[in-house]
Amino acid sequence: MKKKKLSFVSIILLTINAIIGTGIFLSPGSVTMLAGDKAPLIYLVAAVLAIVLAVSFASAAKYVKDSGAAYAYAKAAFGDNIGFYVGITRFVSGSIAWGVMATGAVKTVLSIYGIDSSHFGYITIGFIVLMLVLLLINTLGIRIVEIINNVSTLGKLAALLVFIIAGGIIVITTGENHYSDVMSVVNNGQPLVPPMNLSVFIAATLAAFYAFTGFESVATGSKDMENPEKNLPRALPIGILIIAFIYMGIVCIAMLLNSKMLVETKEVVVLASLFNNPIIRNIILYGAFVSMFGINVAASFSTPRILEALAAKRQLPSVFAYRTKLDCPLVAMIVTILFAVIIPLSFRYDMANIMILSSLSRFIQFLVVPLSVIVFYFNLNKEEVLSATKNFATDVIIPVAAFIFSLFLVIKFDWVSQFSVVSTDGTSVLNIAAIVAVAISYIILPVVLLIWKNTRKA
């Protein structure tokens, strides 16, 4: 019997599901605080930058159709050792990122229902229940994952479209226009929105750009996709374009309705707070639930397949490549869940301490993948790749631009605040927990496993 694989449309929906999380529902005001009435334009610029990076990932996919995404591309371009390092750090950080998303989902649900979202026991119970549900979904097979992924994606899109349509009707029928009111908001006697200059523009664009990340994990499960070498290069940019138009529509309507409330409200689901109609509020509220669940489904599909890809290339024990009759990489799935649970649990769900771990791997991927595409184009790769149609624009010019932008991201990233915490007396001190976690995840663990791999190979 032919095994079920994700179709082209499902890959687009997976891209959307992997990118749209809770941010657009909970905190669209963060970019507005920086950009003011220029916020929609900032989202458009961020989308263009995201597409530049996504095209690099898509170009790599036409040369390498193996699962693993950045790991598979790095291995084919630069050989076993660099590929192994990218793969291990991608797996660890991907598991942690999944844990962060799960923690955020549980905390948000608790907050919405007025339950103490800082209570360790409540978070742990919700966390474990969510992970068990995701494990069950994946063990039921690719077809079930595809259905739930598609339904959750369509559910969150429906909620966002309801916001845009309902808000648009209100704006048209009432003639409301509060688009620029945010520019009059003051904080400690000073305008909340800073004057637009180059540094503010860059800061706002980077803040908006992170709302588009997640596309880099989509190709991880390419083994379970129909014609990934053809479908991924088309699906990734299309998915990001759809999201860009939705984000711009959301921000424009939100600012027209009440741009001041957008940055001042204390409600958890910011978009819902802009409506008085209880039906619309509930639609947006439940859309946020669906969105949180959907992005966790996307993570549960892609992250274990990094571990499976390493095992399939004999760089980890073959047990991690084991699949059930319904095509679930069960051992890799269980190990990934353990990583996703243990790290946030050990940090007592302190998001500030664990976010840095997933951020670092993202930078590694954004630097390595564009370089890999250039290597493939000039036939400098260490391993054989597919005989793909080469294009100088998508395989050289765009990857060079993506690499430069990624390097800029690394330089502009707020490393100081990530590796420091504010003490009780208000001074900034080194965040020892974050430093140790990074050392273990990005130096000690990869080196130990690399030595083990090479020793076994010898």
TrEMBL record:
<dbReference type="GO" id="GO:0022857">
    <property type="term" value="F:transmembrane transporter activity"/>
</dbReference>
<feature type="transmembrane region" description="Helical">
    <location>
        <begin position="235"/>
        <end position="257"/>
    </location>
</feature>
<feature type="transmembrane region" description="Helical">
    <location>
        <begin position="328"/>
        <end position="347"/>
    </location>
</feature>
<protein>
    <submittedName>
        <fullName>Amino acid permease</fullName>
    </submittedName>
</protein>
<dbReference type="Pfam" id="PF13520">
    <property type="entry name" value="AA_permease_2"/>
</dbReference>
<feature type="transmembrane region" description="Helical">
    <location>
        <begin position="82"/>
        <end position="100"/>
    </location>
</feature>
<feature type="transmembrane region" description="Helical">
    <location>
        <begin position="42"/>
        <end position="61"/>
    </location>
</feature>
<dbReference type="InterPro" id="IPR050367">
    <property type="entry name" value="APC_superfamily"/>
</dbReference>
<feature type="transmembrane region" description="Helical">
    <location>
        <begin position="359"/>
        <end position="380"/>
    </location>
</feature>
<keyword id="KW-1003">Cell membrane</keyword>
<feature type="transmembrane region" description="Helical">
    <location>
        <begin position="195"/>
        <end position="215"/>
    </location>
</feature>
<dbReference type="GO" id="GO:0005886">
    <property type="term" value="C:plasma membrane"/>
</dbReference>
<dbReference type="InterPro" id="IPR002293">
    <property type="entry name" value="AA/rel_permease1"/>
</dbReference>
<feature type="transmembrane region" description="Helical">
    <location>
        <begin position="392"/>
        <end position="411"/>
    </location>
</feature>
<keyword id="KW-0812">Transmembrane</keyword>
<feature type="transmembrane region" description="Helical">
    <location>
        <begin position="431"/>
        <end position="452"/>
    </location>
</feature>
<feature type="transmembrane region" description="Helical">
    <location>
        <begin position="120"/>
        <end position="145"/>
    </location>
</feature>
<feature type="transmembrane region" description="Helical">
    <location>
        <begin position="157"/>
        <end position="175"/>
    </location>
</feature>
<keyword id="KW-0472">Membrane</keyword>
<keyword id="KW-1133">Transmembrane helix</keyword>
<feature type="transmembrane region" description="Helical">
    <location>
        <begin position="283"/>
        <end position="307"/>
    </location>
</feature>
